[in-house]
Fold this sequence. Notes:
This is Short-chain dehydrogenase. This protein is of the alpha/beta class. Helices cover 40% and strands 13% of the residues. It starts with 19 loop residues before the first strand and ends in a 5-residue tail after the last strand.
Amino acid sequence: MTPQNGNEAAPARREPRGRRVVITGAGRDFGRTLALFFARRGDEVLLSARDLAAAEHVADEIRGLGSDRVHALRCDLADPASVRAFADEIATVTDHVDVLVNNGARWLSGEDLASAADEDIAATVASTVTGTVLVTKHLLPLLLQSDRPDVVNLISSAGLTGNHRTRAHAAFYAAKHGQAGLADLLSPQLRPHGVRVISLYPPDFSNPDPLGPDWDTTPREAGCELTAHSLVECVMFAIDQPRDCFIKAFHFEQTT
Length: 256
């Protein structure tokens, strides 16, 4: 049909729907930062922490920003039964997951092997390696239901061969190398199914409160310490690329 005049309204532009994003270890530090940033973008956030109260606190912060598209869940990454229950609970909330962010990992400091207790070493390796494997395994069916599935792994420069500049116990290094090995294997395995596996290997970085004044004022010039602000922007840049663009990893120069 020919328009009657030149004032016909243009078709309404369809805005892309927000993503459904699962973030482990989101009760504090960089996981919290990611959760707040995804929520500000209008994405639905399913966040987990070993301590449910911590996850609920971040969920309340997100609601305070005006978004009710948030779910707080408990997940102890070192406990296979807890991971399975976490995945089952997510399946009751949504029929698909667009982005899985494997952020959760237990930090362990120490200058030599003897400086950490056996139980702490075991928990560090289990939460980082076993947890990442199991969360990815159990959420993969929901990722495959998405038309834009991404797995984002926050690894660390400690997971790179020859890097010894992160102030961590050897068990943390071992765990991060395990994560890196998993990512290297999953990337070619999942690519034919349309799942992108994106890994980030940041050095130690500053993480100002994204709800505080330092978020926008912390220096980001050359020679400054890497900030969580820049790291978040790398994550968003990678997942926002067209599906023919596969950014496998971000490697960062250690400047301090």
